[in-house]
Amino acid sequence: MSAVTEDGVQRASAAEAGDRGRDGEERDEDIEEDEEDGFEFGDAEEAMQCVEMAGTDAGALRGQANDYEALAARKRNALAEEQPQREGSKRPRQDELSEVEAATMFDQLMEGFGLRRKRRSKDGKKRGRKKGTKNKGSPEVIKKLGDATLLFAEEKFNEAIPILHEIVRTAPNLPDSYYLLGSIYSETGELDKAINFLMLAAYVSPKDASLWKKLIPLAKKKEDASLARHCILKAMRADPEDVDLKYLCGDMYRNLRDYQKAAEIYEQIVRIYPANIAVRKVAAQMYRECGQIDKAINLLEDYVNTQTTNIDWSVLDLLISLYLRNNAVNEALKKIEKARLQLRPQQKLPIQLQAKEVICHAYLGDVKHAEIFLRDVHLEPSKDNTDVIKELASNLETMGLHEYAVKFYLMIGNVANRNDGSLRVDHKEMGSSYVKVAECYMVLGDKRNAISYFYKAIQSMKDNIHIRLTLSSLLIDEGKTDEAVTLLSPPQNPELQSANAPDQQKPWWCDGKVKMQLAKTYYDKGNLEDFVDTIFHPILETLNVEYANRKVKSMKKLPNTVLHERVKVLGEPRPDSVFQGLRPVASPGELQKANRAKKLIEKRAASNEELKADDSRRTKQVPPIPGLLANMEHHQLVLNLCRTLALLQRYWDALQIINRTLKLGNDVLTHDSKEELRSLGAPYRAPDPSHGFKYVRYVVQQHPYSLSAWNSYYKVISRIEDRFPQHFKYLLRTREEKPDCIPPIIISGHRFTAISQHQSAARDYLEAYKLDPENPLINLCVGTALISLTLGFRLQNKNQCIVQAFAFLYRYLRLCGDSQEALYNVARAYHHIGLNTLAVVYYEKALAVEEDDHPIPKLPYEAGLCAQDDLRPGYCDVRREAAFNLHLIYKKSGATDLARRVLKTYCTV
């Protein structure tokens, strides 16, 4: 025999139980079921099996339940095979069976399980039970039951139990035997067995409400909310007029936050006892919670209109609150005036109604009553009076009457104080009042008073981040930057402060919003180092977390841990109970999620997928500054941080921020912001120049004919000591795509010159010369490359090559207008090949020319990074270099005195 479910039917399989649970969710529990439906045992053997299960321990019962599940499955398969197939057609589907065939199959199935369902005919149904269907015991059974009852009264439980088992074997459908067994186990403290036997008794006699009522306290004692709920509903079906059961049912729905059903149950109680004011109020509140204001008003109006004396002021107060929520201000005033007319002499309206009257008149634009209330009403210190004033102030603030709202918020402190000065409300509640006062002053434009009350609030609510941020903004607006910095800075004793913070909550000074506000304050103040120290690590950590979160795969499939957590709502299985399938106590939404989670777990278990997977896989983390790049206001903060890091020459730190920001903010950053990040000097000045290659490559891709862009590119590449394949590939690709672009050709020639491949270098320089023959730099490069080529061993026509080299150098000299630098380069070329006489001529010409200092051209990212004062005067003059080389020639020729005179003239300070 299988365990009996909530509907009294044996649970043939887990799937059937799930279907019944889903059907139960779609309608209102068991209350709407057929009252004449009941179940009885087929024979004594089935009854004894159920008794044995009710008294078996959990382990044995679990094994028996599995055996019964297998037996039920075999019976279903056998019944399915016995169905005749239609001739020349496929086997009919279950949903194609006629109503009679389906009913026959169900009856056969129930008889196979040992239970017979009592069904009533749809035609000619009569009220009341049929004659002869009442379970009556024989005289022998009645005598044994009396003996067992006497033994139970004498607390001889061990002697009574065998007699009761014999009664069950003889009369299996007699509820008294099960009831006595349940009572015995209840007295011995075996709660599970007591519940099982009492449930058997209740199911055998489902219309006996007393049996279900006896189960309710036992279920609560066991802390089984599902069982208690089930018993309450069954008892209500058995005795619909029992008000105590309706109370329990209403409280149950109220705890489940099913306010609609709770309101309906409470309203039923009101219909039975119209004078019960407490229940009427609760019913109105439940209707208010589920948004049915009109029904709540009707409930209270029916009572208020019938009362002429001894009015319950709390009911009238609730009714007026509902009127105000429904914008029926005039109706509320009428009720207040009617109540005032019924007052005795010297009697005043309660304070809550006076406050409601002030609110009503304020809605109508009349604030005189608020002034009268402030002047004439003197309240005793109490929590109720504090709540009344708080509600009044909140309504005035909502209506935009901030001046009066301030006065009432300040009145809360006076009402909260005793005569001896001791507080009757906690510090947080007082702090909340001060915050409201400060916010009202902010709206009124009185920042001075707003700051004062924010300071009072923060003394009571030190961990409130919103107060600190708002107060710091006000202080900055008032020019009190130092106070704002002190307010946002970590305390001197952070350990003491963190000990007072709530558990599992980081201290307020570690919050990302606080750090951002403090960093902005430092930046505006000019404290760049403090600015970087405050915000660098939070921003870097945020970018790293966001980058890691993007790598985490979007989990459309919920982890198994989440699924198992949701399934807990359905309740743990009851291996120690005969009765299974009780609907869990949860809201409809939670039940729907739990049922879906249960299906997913079963599906994964069947396919053997993901159950073996590690559920500790990475999940998305919460960054210190959520929404950093999603908020446009934060982009400027990131730009300021990168600029400051570059200015402080912390290039590697700046490069980390730039890399992550460009990867994460490609879709949200503006084009100008991205261009500024790329143009900062950090990528080009980082310790490892290879990190800046992609940035300079991007710049020259955007501006392929810009000399400054190619200068930036070459400045980064020239710092890479080893061969860099990406650089070579990019140069070749650029030369193929843009053959008229000169800078990559010159850079290629420089690369060959650096590795002493002068012939290849000369070939690249000559190619550039064809494109721009009037460029002095190209002429200089061609000349120097040819001179270096003549010094090799493989060249046959060296003299011709030297003549060609000097042809380019003299062209370079002409293009430069015989400048000091050009004269020095020509002299150096003669000196290099050993023509010292000609070298002396051009060194002397260079010494005769005076060169003024000229500003050194700077690349875009170098603006502001290097001060002009760092260079000594005369940095454009090369006479010292020319004089030194000239003295070497004189010294080598033996003219020592002449060499000494040249050094003394040009190379001494």
UniProtKB/TrEMBL annotation:
Key word Cytoplasm present in the record? no
The transmembrane residues are: none
Annotated spans, Disordered: 1-45, 78-97, 117-140
Zinc: present as a keyword of the record? no
**Keyword annotations of the record:** TPR repeat
Instruction: Show the ranges annotated as biased composition (Acidic residues).
Output: 26-45
Question: What are the ranges of the TPR repeats?
Answer: 175-208, 243-276, 431-464, 820-853
Q: Which Gene3D superfamilies match?
A: Tetratricopeptide repeat domain (1.25.40.10)
Q: What is this protein called?
A: General transcription factor 3C polypeptide 3
Q: Which organism is it from?
A: Urochloa decumbens
Q: What is the lineage of its organism?
A: Eukaryota, Viridiplantae, Streptophyta, Embryophyta, Tracheophyta
